[in-house]
Amino acid sequence: MDNKFPGKDISNEDIKTKFPLCAKKHENHKSSFEVSGVKFGSDNLVIFAGPNMVESREMILDVAKNVKKIGADFIRGGAFKPLTFPYRSEKYNETREKGIEWLKEAKEKYNIPVITEVMEEKYIPLVSEVADIIQIGSRNMQNFPFISKCAKTKKPIMLKRHYGASLRDWLGAAEYILYEGNEKVILCERGVSVPHTHRSTSRFLMDLQVIPAAQEITHLPIVSDPSHATFWRKWVRPMALASAAAGADGIMLEVHPDPENSAVDPLQPIDYAEFENLAKEIKLISKNIYNR
Ligand code: PEP
Ligand code: MN
């Protein structure tokens, strides 16, 4: 059968019947929308920065102040956290409802929009009151009843790719959100898991190639998260720059005031000074290559 995308697991038929809402209607079709004053689409590259976890009120206020000053468009940070294992370090203190309250305070005080994860259905109303973008984490990517409920809030949604999901699976999950009439959907690549990445210094492999591959098929913006993808702070800069060069519509970075003492995944965040340099370099690339 004639296939526009030979070598991929996506067929022309899939595009028509499995994800018609995600699929581009013509070659240059690209979603363009605003979230709390920030433009998503072909003429802007969006930067999300913040810690893995909202650790305390003081910490999140300090991060909001600094990342805003440096030029982040959104502050990120989980109050509700998916952890791979049930055991927690002494520093780990999931702040949950309090964390959401502190994010609200940080957002209002420093005038910066918030992206944060919701993991359970019962917290959708609370999280959507404060979040400008609701994050659906990689682990929930195919929890269809849950993502449909998130979609019904009509809040913008970032759908992180599960680390074992094909592009076809990922777009199928995004289609569930669009199917509910929610058009503000942002995809986020955060690394895939393949056997040779099974080392403690790099749990995942950044799938840079999925950026152009997704853009060939869908009009949705695609963000890259090199922090989760590399799990290793020294590799965040090269992969962030490569993502910008590959045409990502946004970059999500873990930024912590004291990275080595991050309560979660201390190997991956960068500090404010590193973020400042990197944000400048990312903007240089996107301005020079893509004029945005
Ligand atoms: C996160 O962004 O904090 C997170 C847990 O990401 P992921 O779902 O990609 O692991
Ligand atoms: Mn994380």
Describe the structure.
With 292 residues, the protein is an alpha/beta fold. It contains ten helices and ten strands. The termini are far apart. The protein binds phosphoenolpyruvate and manganese (II) ion. Manganese (II) ion is lined by residues 52, 228, 265.
Shape: globular
- SS element count, helices: 10
Q: Name every ligand kind in the structure.
A: phosphoenolpyruvate, manganese (II) ion
Helix content bin = 25-40%
Largest sheet, spatial ordering of strands: 3-4-5-6-7-8-9-10
Main sheet summary? 8 strands, parallel, barrel
Number of strands: 10
Cα Rg: 18 Å
What would the average pLDDT be, to the nearest integer? 95
- Briefly note the structural class of the backbone: alpha/beta
Q: List the helices and strands in order.
A: HEEEHEHEHEHEHEHEHHEH
Unreliable parts:
none
Describe the SSE topology.
Layout lengths: L11 H6 L15 E3 L2 E3 L5 E5 L6 H14 L3 E3 L19 H15 L3 E4 L6 H7 L2 E4 L7 H9 L4 E4 L6 H13 L5 E5 L20 H8 L4 E3 L1 H5 L2 H14 L3 E5 L17 H19 L2
Parallel strand pairs: 3-4, 3-10, 4-5, 5-6, 6-7, 7-8, 8-9, 9-10
Antiparallel strand pairs: 1-2
Bound molecules: phosphoenolpyruvate and manganese (II) ion.
The site of phosphoenolpyruvate (PEP) has 9 residues, from loops.
